[in-house]
């Protein structure tokens, strides 16, 4: 199952709490481009590779006008440890009740090692200054994720 959203759709609004207990809303970033990436879990191998790629290229993403926000079902305390361990410079929004995850349609059945499981589909939404989704990466290239985001907007 993939998200019900498509490029050209208005990005669903949301408010959540980040790793420092701050309230983060999509509307806080009105007038800015946003990379909103959903990942399954803090401090797991693939999620770490993806997050560190965004960290390592954060300056480049900022130069291209992007704000980065991560979302996972983990809680704020887990996010705080993940941010501290890897020096992530962007907010990670806690969504243990999956309110944001469900709005973006990234929760559902997936195949893991030949087994069908229910979980989060790693998905990145690129949102323009007007809050419109311009690109959805349903299979991000985790080791080159920032590069593929920038290439899409070039």
UniProtKB/TrEMBL annotation:
Gene3D superfamilies: Glutaredoxin. GO terms for molecular function: thioredoxin peroxidase activity. The active site is at 47 (cysteine sulfenic acid (-soh) intermediate). It catalyses: a hydroperoxide + [thioredoxin]-dithiol = an alcohol + [thioredoxin]-disulfide + H2O. Keywords: Antioxidant, Disulfide bond, Oxidoreductase, Peroxidase, Redox-active center. Its EC number is 1.11.1.24. It holds the Pfam family AhpC-TSA. Signal peptide: none annotated. It comes from the Bacteria. One of its GO terms (biological process) is cell redox homeostasis. SUPFAM superfamilies: Thioredoxin-like. Monomer. Belongs to the peroxiredoxin family. BCP/PrxQ subfamily. PANTHER family: AHPC_TSA FAMILY PROTEIN, THIOREDOXIN-DEPENDENT PEROXIDE REDUCTASE. This is thioredoxin-dependent peroxiredoxin.
